[in-house]
Amino acid sequence: MEFHVITGRPEAVAAGVLVVFHREGATSLQGAAALADRALEGVLSQAVSSGEFKGQYGEVKTTHTYGRLGAGRVVLVGLGKAQDLKLDRVRGAAAAACKAIRRAKEASGAFILEDEVFGDLAVGRLAQAITEGAALGLYDFQKYKTRDIENDHPKELLLVIGPGEPAELEAANLEGVRRSVAIGRCLADATNLARDMVNEPANTMTPTRMWEVATQVAQDWGLECACLDRDEMEAMGMGALLSVAQGSRQPPRFIILRYRGGPEAQGKPHPAFLGKGVTFDSGGISLKPAEKMELMKGDMAGGAAVIGAMRAIGEIKPSINVTGIVPAVENLPSGEASRPGDVLRALSGKTIEVISTDAEGRLILADALAYARREKLSPLVDIATLTGACAIALGPFYTGAFTNNQPLLDRLLKASEEAGERIWPMPMHDDFEELIKSQIADVKNVGGREGGAITAAHFLAGFAEDTPWVHLDIAATSQSETERPDQPKGATGVAVRTLVGLALSLAEG
Predict the structure, then answer these.
(1) Sheet strands (E) in 188-304
(2) What mean pLDDT, rounded, does the chain reach?
(3) Which is the catalytic residue, given 178, 230, 288, 414?
(4) CA angle (450 as vertex; 239, 294 as ends), nearest 5
(5) pTM assigned to the model
(6) CATH number, domain 2-162, options 3.30.1300.10, 3.40.630.40, 3.40.220.10, 3.40.1710.10
């Protein structure tokens, strides 16, 4: 799908569909919706006054224009209540509009940016949000369908600035808006890459395939890519990671993506994003129940998010160095698999008593965190589908965040708010450390059912040590069982846009 920024009057824009918006509770139409309504002799306002259309978030109404406008149809979209209007609502409403365009089988749609219905939201931010919403909302994963798939997605979306003098608008707004559209498209494409990776079955998205995807991303976007194999990991002493991989025939991969921000990156932080890459998690010897085990192909969603974020960073090119690290393994039971009760030695030198082989994500991240510290990378953000306990605590709507550095978390929370990815800070009191003390090793990998997400985070904190660090538990948010305007069922690509936003924030100082 192509995005074009143009100037013009809403009623004259030539497109298959003109998209206009209405806020819930407003007694009259505003802006482009009011202009369209006058041309259509009150059809839209009648729908509002009769209660047929309320303006609820994501609500849509489609009507033909019968030649009275430059567009063949109008889609009226609800933004929800005025007090709830943020960029995330614009993003979702744009996604709902694009789905209506697809249902109408129209090839093009037009969004009016300078519209009073959006209040004081800046035009550039609106353009980015609409672009993201369109590309995220139209995503679907049809790779393995053998029937013919109808390609009825819109081919072109117009983002219209106006009315006004074209020359004046060109100088004042056009190029800035085009940059915003390019960033929105980049972020959506990166998120959809992560979605694709998570939606792939585990027999294709192996640790080696994750490495191949990372290699392609590096080639396409000017990154450096390296990968440690089993022998190299053994030589380094990554005993925690290798213990998880030893039950599977799939070789483990330790993937490293590096973005160099040029001379202007000197003196700035060099963050590392670390993503859990368990391409299938059976639980190992501590075997999971069979119910919903097929979803465990998505236990590499953190690694996919890191690869997606690095792809976007490579395209946007901020003036900061960023490293992405993905320890990729498969966790299966076999005669060679690690056992409950085993004691491992991690890269940091710490010993770990294995209580459950199903608490494997923290083991591979322990070695990844130690590696990042060896490389003197800071700050560190790890992303992992780590614990079902976090899903119990926060439900399917929030990612849990744990930190040893509040200013870093505050900056990340701001990035997540702009991305529309909900994150909730969780406690990290020292009392929880008592729950993961081992009688025979330095630490054990499970602290019991109570506070499971927090004890898992404390386990990781012991390997982050004094480096500024945030852990994001995306166990509940990496996949969606319901469809939302900008999110189909399945993989969400969560955290990609938040990580990119954090990198851009750190680049600004």
Answers:
(1) 224-228, 253-259, 272-275, 277-281
(2) 95
(3) 288
(4) 60
(5) 0.97
(6) 3.40.220.10
